[in-house]
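Chapter summary example: a protein plus heme C.
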Amino acid sequence: MKVIKKIAKLLLLLFVAIQFFRPEKNINQGNHLAGFINETNPPENVKTILTHSCYDCHSNNTEYPWYNNIAPVSWWLSAHIKDAKAALNLSDWDNYNKGQKDRKLEEIIEVIEKGEMPLKEYHWMHQEAGLSKEQGEAVLEWARRTKTLYGLGPLPR
Ligand code: HEC
């Protein structure tokens, strides 16, 4: 029993100690999506879908849930956001060249077709984030139409 108590105390101490290590937050209150919105011109329903289901991970601003204040959850979220932004950061749209924009839209089409995004873990706490068939189709329709802006046609498979 003594040993178990000691271990429990140690774990508690460890849990308290890790709370001091806070990852930097992904917050930007400015107009960071203006470039993307102006150029790709998503209709209102697609804008709403992107806001509820994608921007938290794929833009420079995350609406954090309360449990982000607890390590190690905060570390886990931070790592996810970092990976997501490395793959696709819609706040950085202006910095992608034509070919990259075309590729990003192709990837958006792919992940929506395959139902891979938003990530499964995100649904646990954001039940409204999963896309219905109609919502998926609205995003696909917009993405396919927008891809023609960059004039490169479908990519070779
Ligand atoms: C909870 C965070 C999260 C949410 C929400 C999310 N994503 Fe992602 N997304 C990721 C992560 C993490 C990766 C990187 C995955 C990897 O590298 O395997 C990624 C990768 C991608 C990629 C690149 C895929 C590739 O082939 O490299 C695209 C495109 C994408 N997401 C689109 C979306 C769209 C569109 C939405 C909204 C419908 C969305 N994501 C919502 C976390 C998220």
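Key point: Residues 53-54, 56-58, 80, 83-84, 87-88, 107-108, 111, 117-119, 122 surround heme C (CB under 6 Å).
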